[in-house]
Every structure is written in structure tokens, then in C-alpha cells.
Amino acid sequence: MSTVPERHYLSPLFEPESMAIVGASENPGSVGAVLMQNMREAGYRGALYPVNPKHRSVFGVPCHASLAALPQRPELVVIATPAQTVPGLIDECGQRGVRAAAVISAGFGEAGAAGVELQRALLENARRHGVRVLGPNCLGLMRPSLGLDATFAHGGALEGSLGLISQSGAVCTAMLDWARPAGVGFSSVVSLGASADLDFGELIDYLVEDARTAHILLYIEGIRDARRFVSALRAAARVKPVILMKVGRHPAGSRAAVSHTGAIVGLDDVFDAAVRRTGVVRVDSLGAMVAAAQALAARIRPQGERLAIVTNGGGPGVMAADRAADLRLPLAELSAATIASLKEALPASWSHGNPVDLIGDADAARYSAAMRACLADENVDGVLAMLTPQAMTDAEAAARAVIDEAKKSEKPVLACWMGEAQTAGARRLLAEAGIPAFRTPDPAVETFAHLSAFYRNQRALLRTPGPLSKLAAPDPAAARALIGAALAEGRTVLSETESKDVLEAFRIPVAKSARAATEEDAVRLADAAGYPVALKIDSPDITHKSDVNGVRLDVADAKGVREGYRAILADAARLRPGARLKGVVVEPMVGRHRARELMAGLVRDPVFGPAVVFGAGGTAIEVLRDRAVALPPLDAFLVADMIRGTRVAKMLGAFRNLAPADMKAIESVLLRVSEIACELPEIAELDVNPLLADERGAVAVDARIALRAAPQARRFAHLAIHPYPAEYIREWQPAGLPRVTLRPIRPEDADIEKAFVRSLSPESRYFRFMDTVKELAPALLVRFTQIDYDRDMALIAVEESGAAIGICRYATNPDGESCEFALVVADAWKRRGLGRRLMRSLIEVARERGLKTMIGHVLAENHAMLAFCASLGFVLSTGREGPTVRRATLAL
């Protein structure tokens, strides 16, 4: 099976060979005039057509009255006319066959009801004709390598390797204003604006495959398509460093972001959780993004996080070390050999450790010796060289020494030359040599920390848990029945007893409880449970029982039960008038006086869906605000990392006279909560508080579940990260041959897929890739193994040895209804039924996902593959490339 290297569907936007500017003008200061001037000054290397019925020419370029009047169909149309004209212009684009448009005009979703209606009409016309739209209300886009500057920014951009995608045009202009004098260039600059159609996910996908882009920067105010966003980031971070800045971390900022772009802004700690699962790094300020961009442009990419600091001033060295500690960035432990080398080269009063203090009179020779020793140390992943100007200091000579040693090493080097007039020339030398140079220690350390975080984040990126853990199987059917009954009754909150029944269905230990509607019921249940007991208010309208004095603990006898029952109901009626009071819940006291009070549960984010939460529990939960958040699905590695992110984690070990808590039991509860998140989309909120944990295990003492009506959709559609689809794992035992496992591909399969392609015969590789490729490039390996299981699928066949012997895949097209497939089988396994087995499984998955058509392209000379496709029901026709390629189409 072969595939044709398709031109990316966003190529008309990023690589247009011709373009039109609708609203082009010579009116000074108008957007249409700035667009035309920028395109001419950038030296666009395609056909440029101004469109405006009021002009015969614009800046000497012939102008046309309409898109229909153009001598050829433009690949890209940039629109800068009043908002009310835009829906009609998009319709004209579609009629002319245009596939990409950038709408600079404002006045849409951000402008009230009338604007919302205009945006709806714009999208309706775009989707009817298959036009992809950037914007509206955006700055535009740049591709400096093509001389494309379709923006109304001033100054243009240098050609380089940074790809910038921003929801704010102002942030784009600020970055551009910094970049040109700093000598930093861009592969692309894209302003999303309202991102009514094209959003981060699709644009990131393009930059991942774009050979001109080596690093990606993102400025984010809100996300529309969480699944596509997360999937794209995970794919990008496997091959290219991604730095993002997300605003709206606090309520005021969130409100401003919503009013600016109309995007949905969710919980900030949930966004952080998503970022951790994608392998990218988040910065908190534009200054930090600029510093990171400078470092990326200089090809700074640490492979670890152990930093060495070389300085001629003890104070600044301590400042840098303190900032590293704040960021949990480990300082390198210098080896004995390095210490010995430094003893020989430095005066006796040097610091004898890291930071390496060269003493105030340090000259260039000392800097050379210290840099050489540190860069050669296997315990060091990067070096920060620092200098403070002193009377005997030659700042430029020291900078040259650092530059010379940096050239000899692959390890990253950053510099902090403090001061201004005496060190400006040295900083210029460092920057020209590709070494990021700072004036103060903090941003230098922060930049190294941001970039080295890639090393750490790759561990989470590779995790692809399934929806269910490896623990004892839960009973989701029982939980669904209970939830379905409650929703059918119109209830959106489960009682405590029902909530605990859901937890029990997922094998979470609970303190058994029973509901008492009367005082006599409460006494009877307490007698049966055995004293002492706990009494709790039973009301669907009261979330926090302690707010209404709704809990009585250690009730010792029947008299106490009667008194407690009456007092609980009386206090609840007084403090929460109008609440529905159904009685009390009775449960035996959990005798765990040495236990820690924890909290576990689920929250539902408006952008990323369900998120697992964990932290300190009890009545002070809102005050302490100690919680870690993670996106499901989770595995043991991710759960352990989540627990470490809380302050209460320090209390789970041996503490004063307390034995260590049973960490396996706590981890098990969180894994079970992840299962609930995956399997029960109807749960809007789950709160287990307190979760008591000691050396004997963990038990849920109180639980509350809120529900929502979940629309019928594909399984796991409510999750931002699609679980590994373990349901498609199959065992196959061909007659007389070793057992074969067919399963969805995983990110960690990159090495075996690379080896598989390398082992193919030249003919098999040519038929598969229509090229004489010998092995897959890193970007292709990522694309093939780091997939979104919701929109794409790849099945790999592996022998018991773990070697791959066959791979088939499909990728969903932008229309969401068709997919392109490919198949390749090891030469030794051809004509043994493996290809048919793989394809039938792939077709089954595509049908389950609701796809309507499967398409492939086969070289006309590949007769065996053509016959194979025909036998599976594919219809063969001549491909668009002519008689050398046949198109195989299967109606699903």
C-alpha cells in the first residue's frame, strides 16, 4: 500500500502562490493601505491582486472590482472591509474555489448580538464551500520566507525558525518589535483573533510538519477545541520545543479574555494540568516568553536540568541559586575531578562548590578555566556565566572567554552580565555569538528552567493510559443504572448513600451509611451499626454539611441519636431555609484517629472536561486550597506525580508519632476516580471529603456526586485526552506461525516502527512511501506514533519478540467524514493473511467512529495491492495524479 504525499490542506494559507486583498486602498492609515504596503515591502513572490471597486490601481498594482473579475483564482484572500460585507465575500470566495481566507475585519462575536449573527453567517458560508477562515478580528499572518506579510503591523519580520501563534494582535506586534533589533527571525507569525474557524490545534498541526519551523511560541487567552489542542501539542512537543503563555490566570484576567476573543476560559490549574500532559512549557509573562524565544532562536535546548553557575560575585551567585531553588531547578553537584581541576586554576579563596565564585578580580583566564571544567562535567546539563563590573574587570574579555568555551560544547550556556554602560558591549558580543545575555540573574535562571522543563515533561508526554487501571475490574454498569435512575427522576445530586454506591461500584472503600427519614429510623440504624455512630444531614441542597451544623460525631447511645437528629434538622432549617431536608445519614464511626484527612474527586472544566483533583481535606479545604489537578486517564506514574504536587504529601510519610500512610491505597483511590471520569460522562462533580488515610489503607467517609445530562456521543468524547483504546487489542494465531498481537500503536513504538521501516525491502518502501526513503525522519515517526485516537487510528502487528511485522493506519480528513488509509506488511509476512487481518480491523474501527468513506492511493504498478483492495470491496479509479496512481475507495 502506498500513500501520496498530499499538499497540506492549510498550504493555501501558509504557502499561497497567489493572493488577493479585498479592501485594498491607498487611503493613508487604512488597513487596506497598510496591507498592500507591507506585502510590497516584504517582496511577496507570488501573484498579488488588490480588489476594490473604487480603484483602478493601488500603489501601481492593477486593481479589480471583485473576486470574480480576477484573472485567476487566488489561493488566499485577505479581507479588510466592514463586517457586514464579509459573509457575502466568503460566499464569493467559495464560488471562485478559494480555500483559505484571512478576515482582518472586526465587529463579529466580540461586538454583541448583531456581530454574533454576522459571524454565524460567515461560518455557514465558509463551511458550505469548504473555505478555511483565519480570524475574524485578527492582525493577519506572515511567512517571511515567501515575502508574505498579510498584516497591518509595522516593521515586518526577519526570516527564522520561530513559529508564533497568538490570539492577540498586540502581542504579535510586541514580539515583532523586540525580535528585529535582536536579530531573531520567524518562520510564521499567525494572529488568530476570534478563531471562529481555525483554532490553535489545526495551526499547531501545520507547524509540526512545517520544515521551516523549529520552535513554536503560543499566546493563549482561551481554547475552543480542547481535544484538538491537546492532541496537537502532544504531537508538537515530541519534535519541537513549545513555549506558551496563557493569560486569564485570575478572575479579572479571565473576564478580560472572554470579552476580547469570546473564547471560553476554564480553570487555570486545569489548564496547567493539560500543559503537563502535553510536554510543553508555560511561562507567566511576555518578558519570559521573549527570553525563551531568544534562547530557542539561539538553539538553546537543554537535555537535563542540573545547572552550574560561574560568577565573579558571591552575592549575584546566591541570588541565582535562590531563584533556582524557587523554581525547583537543581544545582549541579560538581564531580571530584571538576573540583580538583578548579582548585588548580582558581585562587585558594574560591567557593569550592556550585555556584563557582571566581572572586571579584577574576580575569578572562579564570572564566575560561571554570567554563571548561563545568561544561566537561557529566553532572552538569548547562552553565550560567555571570559577571558584575568591578574596577579590575574586563567585561568584554570575559565574554569572549565564555564564547570560546561555549563553542566547544554541546551543552547550553546562558549569560548574565549585570550593569549597563560597562557591560553593554559584552552583552552584545554574547548575543551575536548566540548566547542569551541578561542584565539580572532571575530571568536568566527562569529561561534555563523553562527550557530544561522539556526534559522533565517528556516523561508525562509518553504516558498513554487506558480508561481502566490494572486493578480489579469495576462494575460501571451498576453505577450507570443508579445515575440513570436519578436523572430520570429529574435529580442532579445523588444522596450520600447513592454517591457511596457509585464509589463502591468502582471498588473504592467507603464508610457504609444508611438513610434515616425519621428519628426512630435513626435509632434503629444506629443500634444495628453499633455505637459510636456519626449523624449527617441528608439534603440534596446542602453541599457542605458543616456549614449548617449538619454533622454529629461519636454519638454514643440512642438518646444522643435522638437529640442529634432533632438538632441537625433544626439547625439546617434555620441556617438554610428552603433546603429540602430528607432526614439524616447514619454510619458507624471510622476509628482512625491517626489518619490524615484528604480530599479526592472530580471537577468539570468548561474547556477540558473532567479533571481529577487531590489534596488536603477536612473543613478547612477552601482556606488551605491545597490541591493538585490532573487530566484523566491516569496511570500509577501520573498519580504519584500528582500526589507529589500537594503540600499534604509531606504529611503522608512518617510524621511525629504517625506511621506512614498506605500510599498504594491512596494511589488506588485516585486511579479509581480516573476510571469514574472516563466511564461516567454524566458526573459533573465528585467530592470525596474526607478521605481518611493511614497505614491500614484509605476509606471514603463522605461523598457527594452532582450530575449533568450527558448528550449521546462517541465514547470518551467528554475527555480532553482520549484513553488508549485497549478494546481494539486482538490476539491472532495463524496456522503454523508464531502468535501475533494486533493493537493500537503507542508513542513508545517509535523505535520499533523505525526498525520495521528500515527492515523493509526497497520495493516495499517504495510502494508504501512512493519514494526511496530508507528510514523515517523524527517528525514522521512522531506523526505516525503520537496520534489522537479519536480522529486517527494506527494498528500495529507485533510478534512475541516485540518486533513489528505490519502496520495499517487511517487519518481523518478535514471534512470529518472520510479518511486516508495506508498499509504495509513485512516482506516475510506477505501472503499469509496478516494484511487482510489488519485491514478488516481498521475498517471496523472506522465504521464505529462514524466515518463514511475510506480512501487510499496505490501505484498502478503495484498489482498485488490493487487486487488486494478490490478483494476487500474497494472501487478502483484513476487518481488525480494521472495513470501512474490508482485511487481505491471504500464506502463504509
Instruction: Report, as a whole number of angstroms, the end-to-end distance.
Output: 19 Å
Q: What kind of sheet is the major sheet?
A: 8 strands, mixed
Radius of gyration in whole Å, from Cα? 31 Å
Global geometry: globular
Q: Structural class of the secondary structure composition?
A: alpha/beta
Q: Going across the major beta sheet, what is the strand order?
A: 30-31-32-33-34-35-37-36
Number of helices: 28
* Helicity, as a percent range: 25-40%
Q: Strand portion, in percent?
A: 15-25%
* Low-confidence region ranges: 1-5, 250-265
Mean pLDDT: 88
**How many E-type strands?**
37
List the helices and strands and how they pair.
Elements: H1 11-14, E1 18-22, H2 31-42, E2 47-51, E3 57-58, E4 61-62, E5 76-79, H3 86-96, E6 100-103, H4 113-129, E7 132-134, E8 140-143, E9 148-151, E10 158-166, H5 169-182, E11 185-191, H6 200-209, E12 215-220, H7 226-237, E13 242-246, H8 251-261, H9 268-278, E14 281-283, H10 286-297, E15 307-311, H11 314-326, H12 336-345, E16 356-357, H13 364-376, E17 382-387, H14 395-407, E18 413-417, H15 424-432, E19 437-438, H16 441-461, H17 476-488, H18 496-505, E20 514-516, H19 519-529, E21 533-538, E22 551-555, H20 558-575, E23 583-588, E24 596-605, E25 609-616, H21 621-624, E26 627-630, H22 636-644, H23 663-679, E27 683-694, E28 697-700, E29 703-707, E30 730-732, E31 740-744, H24 750-759, H25 762-769, H26 778-785, E32 792-799, E33 804-812, E34 818-825, H27 834-848, E35 853-859, H28 863-871, E36 875-879, E37 882-891
Parallel strand pairs: 1-2, 1-5, 5-6, 6-7, 10-11, 10-12, 12-13, 13-14, 15-16, 15-17, 17-18, 18-19, 34-35
Antiparallel strand pairs: 3-4, 8-9, 8-11, 20-23, 21-22, 21-23, 24-25, 24-27, 25-26, 27-28, 27-29, 30-31, 31-32, 32-33, 33-34, 35-37, 36-37
Helix pairs in contact: 3-4, 6-7, 7-9, 10-16, 11-16, 12-13, 13-14, 14-15, 17-18, 19-20, 22-23
